[in-house]
Amino acid sequence: MTLTRGHTNCLRAAVLGSGNIAADLVAKLQRTPNVECCLVAGRRNGSDGLAFARRLGLSTSTSGLAAVLEEAASFDLVFDTTSADAAKVNWPALRDAGLRTIDLTPSKQGVMCVPGLNIGDTTTSQNVSLVTCGGQATLPFIVDVTSHSATSYLEVVTTNASRSLGPASREYIDEYIATTEAAMSQFSGVAAVKAIHIVNPADPPMVMQNTIFAEVTHCDLGAISRAVDERARRVKTYIPGFEIVVGPVADGDRLLLTSRVAGAGDYLPTYAGNLDIITCAAVAVAEFWADAGTLSHSGTKAEVSA
Amino acid sequence: MKASSPVQLLDTSLRDGNHAVGHSISRDQIRRYAEAADAAGIDMIECGHGNGLGASSLQVGRSSEADGEMLAAAREAVTRGRLVTLALAGFATRKRDIAPALASGVDVVRLGAHCTEADLSVPHIDFVRSQGCEAHGVLMMAHWAPVEVLCEQARLMVDAGAQAIILMDSAGALTPGSVSDRVTSMSESIGVPIGFHAHNNLHLAVANAIAAVSAGATILDGSARGFGAGAGNAAIEVLAATMDHLGIPWNGDIYGVLDAAEYAVEHLVPAVPHTDSLTIISGRSGVFSGFAPHVRRAATSYSVDPRDVLSELGRRRVVAGQEDVVVDVALGLAEEPTLEEEVVSSGDKWHS
What we know:
heterodimer, A: alpha/beta, 7-stranded parallel β-sheet, 5-stranded mixed β-sheet, 11 helices, about 40% helix, B: alpha/beta, 8-stranded parallel barrel, 8 strands, about 45% helix, about 10% strand, globular
């Protein structure tokens, strides 16, 4: 994901929503050479996310979707960070306006993507669904497990700090579970899956934790360990705070793998790795589109900003 | 003591008891025990996986019976009282779990969340009410938060439509005074019936339940011989007899309740729960009672003291559903040098 500045293809993006995920994404886009954040459109004037965007000197609006549609022609893509239900309203309008969308809510409308696994599938997608934070943190490792074992059942347990979850994440926990489970089956080919989401209010807040359980009939634990190590190294290149804390360990017919994800502390403190794991994925997809030149408002970021 | 209308008893043997037997209660056991409890005039009979609908998992334990099968068996048996089930946010979802439970004919769904995270269950409460079913809000691990926070969280549930609020002392960490404070404030400010669910870690389950009723609670959870997670719940037959003793009215027949408990000892409860070293440390550390079997298993696998595991879990402030942390903690303790090794290694350093 290292890209040089002065890339010839700089994309102009709008961010829909102004919650924790939007704010963290906006912070990351400040460091992304070929994607320019041109508008942050929320709904609440008093929202912390909009205030954060204003402090960064970005253009903001409280008119939400309407603000994006009004200037649709000046954007190449939209990051939707609103909520599962709002994203279902937003997408048809964005599509009609000709805007490609990277959806960070669990609304599951587009091509489900985990950049480390299938970013190539998004080359021509109009809508990319980034599954969920728990999905982003575990699906690559699930594929490592199922590639070297005969797996009959998969389970993912994600525990997040209470303070890292904004109102939309809290309201749409059922959708989070359903979307995570759908992606687990899709990427692994295993039909029997379960996702569990636990919220912990400890103070100081705990770092995002994910556990994968797999029931296997036979497996090559050595091969899984090597694949997981290699994968973790790659994930660390964009989330330095990612670490495998337990496993993979075998206990009878089950495998267990636990990871912790500390974030960069861009918006919320480092405990909120659940924000980083999905906002980094969003940036990766946008950069991939910029590189592929499948969208274009030509010019470098500097030129566009000028 | 003022208790104008009878206290409602809720028998959770067929739900919390599942924690004590690795979620293995059979349909046949459900049918028979529910019949006995129903015949005794118990108001509400709760049935399901220990962690509620959709919770059968490697994380907290597999259920030997599917949710639907358990509820169907209980539904056949419960004719006088009301059939209750539990759904916790983060495990159960409306579509996958709660809607099918409603279709199987439950009378009350208890929608729960950790006691500081009530908003997570708001969509569930709203859904259950919209389907015309009674919804109770459950605040788990009620020792965790101060009274003001509990009241504020209960308010979120009531505003969403909860028709009662149940405080669960999931870690068995409360004492009669702290129960009384909590229930008094809540019954003054919440405006719906308050219930209390005790655990016996510090051998205070019945005393705590009675303290709750004295402070204004009108729903009490109990189970046959205390059949439930960790040190178990308040023994429902002791609760009933104590209320008789104190002149607190309740619905039902004391001999019937005693008979149901006798039946349970014969056919449902393989070992009557008791307070032991682990449950005492668990209560003192404020750790969810359902962790006990996971702690025992991990402590044996990694040759560490289960009491140390529980203390560390308490220090990390884990909540119900974080059973995966048990292995992490046990491994961490196994890797720590023992005191003896530490002395030797520091001695080595000293000489080198």
